[in-house]
Amino acid sequence: MTPEQMEKAIVQLTAKQDRAADLIVQLANAQRESFEFCKQAFQAIEQDFRVVHEDLKVVQEELKETRQLVDSNARSIQALSQQQPE
After folding, report:
1. Distance between CA atoms of 30 and 24, rounded to whole angstroms?
2. CA quadruple 42, 45, 51, 56: dihedral positive or negative?
3. Cα 18 to Cα 23: distance, rounded to the nearest angstrom
4. In angstroms, what CA-CA distances link 25 with 18, 37, 60?
5. Could you read off the pLDDT of 26-77 as tens digits, one per residue?
6. How many whole angstroms separate alpha carbon 77 and alpha carbon 79?
7. What is the radius of gyration, based on Cα positions, of the chain?
8. Is the pTM value of this prediction over 0.85?
């Protein structure tokens, strides 16, 4: 290989290394953006989960109150039916 050919090969190799470095930087940036997007999506889902969890607590409390009301009504109906003259 002549010195000119070696120089040309080195220049080409350097250019390829520069392109590879640029691609690596682009990939790193894309990964960072992807990570940030996923992080934000996860935080949104986590917040939604908290809201749903709180709503579930409210529904469970309302269900408990409704059951108590139904039980109370059932006892009242039973007491009234026992008071009816036969």
Report:
1. 10
2. negative
3. 9
4. 11, 18, 52
5. 999 999 999 999 999 999 999 999 999 999 999 999 999 999 999 999 999 9
6. 5
7. 37
8. no
